[in-house]
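Backbone-to-sequence.
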């Protein structure tokens, strides 16, 4: 379980005050807010990439409290396909993530087949469309085989067929016990497989309330 206690985020101004939340394995959680309200900043804090002004984030594993620095291989976050280096191939990234997070225990070939990447996975990423890049990013989550997935706008750039594939992907991950936390705009397709949808409204963390 990933736990957040009394978390406060401040950038140029207050973004979120005194957030408390629990994120359990086998469930998906949506985070919805208008642009600039702190969705990405929150995911960065949960991933340990950004420090909150106040509050704590930690993992409870078999009854033991673990700070984020001790759970790096349990959590995977890749913020955007813009992070991808155009000189490398999708396969380069899949092999690196699989080796670094899953100790090479995930079958990369099966993931490539699932996301229909065969035709371009060995090409330089500079030749990819936005949708192709996003499929590589989602495949990276699969080969990481981590317990916690943090996703920022995960359906960005996906066509209708791959949106459906992503919904299936999320459902299967939940069955495997993954804890999935993702940000999105208002999107009924994603919310349909979410166990809870949270909203950041007027700097407050809303526990499942819909609407702004």
């Amino acid at each position: 379980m990933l736990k957040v206690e009394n978390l406060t985020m401040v950038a140029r101004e207050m973004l979120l005050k005194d957030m408390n939340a629990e994120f359990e394995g086998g469930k998906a959680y949506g985070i919805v807010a208008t642009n600039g309200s702190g969705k990405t900043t929150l995911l960065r804090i949960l991933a340990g990439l950004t420090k909150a002004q106040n509050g704590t984030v930690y993992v409870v594993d078999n009854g033991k409290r673990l700070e984020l620095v001790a759970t790096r291989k349990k959590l995977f976050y890749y913020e955007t396909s813009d992070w991808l280096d155009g000189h490398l191939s999708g396969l380069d990234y899949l092999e690196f993530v699989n080796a670094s997070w899953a100790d090479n225990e995930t079958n990369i070939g099966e993931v490539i087949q699932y996301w229909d990447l065969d035709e371009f996975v060995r090409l330089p990423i500079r030749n990819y469309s936005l949708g192709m890049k996003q499929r590589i990013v989602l495949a990276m989550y699969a080969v990481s085989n981590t317990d916690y997935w943090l996703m920022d706008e995960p359906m960005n750039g996906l066509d209708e067929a791959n949106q459906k594939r992503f919904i299936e992907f999320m459902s299967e991950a939940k069955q495997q016990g993954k804890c999935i936390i993702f940000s999105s705009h208002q999107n009924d397709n994603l919310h349909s497989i979410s166990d809870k949808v949270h909203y950041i409204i007027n700097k407050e963390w809303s526990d499942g309330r819909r609407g702004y």
